[in-house]
Hints:
With 152 residues, chain A is mainly alpha-helical. Chain A is 50% helix and 4% strand.
Amino acid sequence: MDSTTTNNSETDAQKEETCKKQPANAGLKWFLIGGCITALVALCGVTVLGVVLAAQWNRVVESPQPMAQAATATSGISQVTETPLSTHTLNPDLPAPTITAKPFPTNPPAPVGNPAPDFGFEYGNPNLHASNPGNFAAAAGKPQMVELFAFW
Amino acid sequence: MAAVVHGLENKYGEQMNFVYLDVDKRAVNNILDDLGIYASYVPTFFFLNSEGKIVGKTLVGEQSDSTLEQAIQDILIEEGIFTK
């Protein structure tokens, strides 16, 4: 009887230990599961990102192609560029164009011996003459009116 | 201006001398220095009596016929050639 009781009590202790250890094992298990999921998601994200970057890189590298290739890449544009330019030929029946432009006007040469131009006002005075300063004497024996002038 | 002066010269040429000095001449500048006149503007008119002294008003710039004739008559009256 005592042994049975002892066995029972040992079993209970083991059960208690098991029960105490279970939550720790379960936490570890869920931690590992979560980590795996996170790793998978991260791996998928990295893979998708890599694919997108690779596609972008290919687009960037292939874009600077020559204009002819770019034109021929599109069927509509290639048809336009492949059409030869139309050439015009002169119609021999049409009259030659006449030049209607007038030459630059040129002033007629001034005649030689032309009289002085008429400015509309008195420009200088032909009657203006200067006295000889060597003959000037302040005391001339009669009054004098002296005009100081300049020819300019 | 000179035409006016020349017209006055024909009118009063017997009573007084009319002298026209070109200020660009060195000899004229010497004369003006002796008389104590500085020609800052042309034309300039001044009058000398029979003894060579400056009399009357010095007229600077363009002058009318009547102004010049009045100045000439004043000088001639002052000299006793004309009487009022």
